[in-house]
Amino acid sequence: MKESLYTIPLMDAFQADEECPFCYIERKLEQDTLDYILGSASAYMQTDIREKTNKLGFCRSHYQKMFQYGNSLGNAIMLSSYFHELNEELKKKLSGVKPGKPSLFKRKKAAAEEDASSNTALSAWIRAKESDCFLCSKQKDTYRRYIDTFFMMVRSDTDFYKAMKNGKGFCLHHFATIIGEADSRLNGRQLEDFYKDVFELMRVSMDRVEADVEWFIDKFDYRNRDADWKDSRDAVQRAMQKLDGGYPADPPYKAK
């Protein structure tokens, strides 16, 4: 099949002997975006990129990862630019707020609700800012292209399909993604074979990880002190990944 920008990395992910190839892809995407924005490319110095970061900002998770990455000056430059624009906008929002005096009934109702203030225009604006993130947006756009490429390769690349069948399955998070889209991407015999093969792959995969966790626990029994660990030494982090995705044992990703 004709190779694209995404076929080779996707094949690499499915041949990497990982619990979930899409977790592998997402980790690489996140590392690449951190390198892009704060690494040697110094994208934070580009006017068009700063316009986007000023508009979107970053989420809490990515602020932490950006800090851990290590480029304090690059972070400070982006923060300064973002703070300036955000502060100007915030001052306008604050000057337009004219709180009324709620009735006793409304005060009691507000006290009973978990987040009654979220209905105000100011609160809604802040929540919208919290939900935007330049890095999340960049990763999401590229990740969607990988999903498109995955189904294209499932339909037309027998070597890729074999690599998928011989792999370790998916985490439940990414399994839900591909199953949720399979009906609209595949049809007829292809869809039937895909379901059969992927469902069996997940049954075997989930049983294997469960057994690894159980043996990890059994190894703490003194009677098994001299027994082989088998594949259970990293069972805890692999089980966490299998259930919800990601790499819980990964150290912070830092500038090279």
Unreliable spans are 114-118
Largest sheet: number of strands, sense, barrel closure: none
Query: β content, as a range?
Result: under 5%
Mean model confidence by pLDDT: 90
What is the CA-based Rg, rounded? 24 Å
Oligomer state of the chains in this structure = single chain
Number of domain units? 1
- What class do helices, strands and sheet pairing give? mainly alpha
Mass-distribution shape: globular
The number of E-state strands comes to 0
Separation of the first and last Cα atoms: 35 Å
Helix fraction bin: 55-70%
Number of helices: 12
Element order: H for helix, E for strand: HHHHHHHHHHHH
Would you mind describing this structure in some detail?
The structure is a single chain. It contains twelve helices and no strands. The protein has one domain. The protein is mainly alpha-helical. The two termini are 35 Å apart. It is 69% helix and 0% strand.
